[in-house]
């Protein structure tokens, strides 16, 4: 590797030794997750040749049909982290309860959550998909008494994350990471098998002319979301005075990656088909890690009313409405919700 290339390992060592934002244990944990993502990238790349496409014929805890790659990615992450990652336990979109790490000494101090394969509906179509992950620190009331790890240990708001990231399996395989010191992107050098830093301190433009939403749900949305989208669609002749473009990849990783690259706003709002569900996306392993990454890149993330990272989770698989991306647009959508609620809209809504 040439001298000027910065590897993931060097980046993490600098975050530990120079910036003091991670511990050596967290550094090793992130290396293990990144290695697992390389293995998932290889599996994804095999496609029909490797027999990895199609349904696994099983359902996960949320009642969704699992694709073979959902199951493979989940197994790869669990196997890689079981002994390699300073963990107390893991939680996954594909697992009902938590997966405690087999007893050993000293007990791991971190909790890892993941959506092993995001964008499942795109797997068989050869469209970008990804892995999303979040790391929390296990908190102890009394450090002298180490209780067995439980689901309650995981139920922390997203602002307490110590690392978050995703890996996108697309034309390039890219790992995007934050440890609270901005957002860095690493591209996989497929010949060398190495993660190479290709962008540091990623910034999302505060304004945008591009929105991402599943328009087919139009008739189910609440009034504030309709208002926002109607104004975008009215274009240069409407109240916004400018034309908007639309993109919807239906892989959150790919939509968020585009927003980190050139700005935009992503919405997966509440809708009235299932009024008792706050949204479709999962708080702890989709919205929280993506919300922190977006904030670290200068954007914003809310559920329409509250900052995503301040939401107190009640369960591992909680769902949430998500609006994230370019700051001024997220603040606008949030203001529309607060106005509809009859609440005074703060100058800066989030
Ligand atoms: O098919 P829809 O309703 O547009 O939903 C697409 C959304 O669902 C998701 O695929 C959900 O993630 P999973 O594939 O991990 O269940 C998001 O990535 C994406 O933004
Ligand atoms: Mg997902
Ligand atoms: Mg998934």
Automatic annotation (TrEMBL):
Catalytic activity, EC: 3.1.3.11
Residues covered by the Fructose-1-6-bisphosphatase class I N-terminal domain: 7-199
Positions bound to substrate: 118-121, 214, 280
A GO term, aspect molecular function: fructose 1,6-bisphosphate 1-phosphatase activity
Statement: the UniProt record of this protein carries the keyword Cytoplasm: yes
Subcellular location: Cytoplasm
Xref: Pfam families: FBPase, FBPase_C
Binding positions (Mg(2+) 1): 93, 115, 117
One cellular component (GO) term of this entry: cytosol
Record-annotated Fructose-1-6-bisphosphatase class 1 C-terminal domain positions: 204-337
Pathway stated in the Swiss-Prot or TrEMBL entry: Carbohydrate biosynthesis
Cofactor dependency: Mg(2+)
Keyword entries, A-Z: Carbohydrate metabolism, Cytoplasm, Hydrolase, Magnesium, Metal-binding
GO biological process, one term: fructose metabolic process
Residues binding Mg(2+) 2, per UniProt: 115, 118, 286
Cofactor binding notes: Binds 2 magnesium ions per subunit.
Catalytic activity, as annotated: beta-D-fructose 1,6-bisphosphate + H2O = beta-D-fructose 6-phosphate + phosphate
Database matches in NCBIfam families: PRK09293.1-1 (NF006778), PRK09293.1-3 (NF006779), PRK09293.1-4 (NF006780)
Family: Belongs to the FBPase class 1 family.
Subunit structure: Homotetramer.
Name of this protein: Fructose-1,6-bisphosphatase class 1
Lineage: Bacteria, Pseudomonadati, Pseudomonadota, Betaproteobacteria, Burkholderiales
Annotated gene: fbp_1
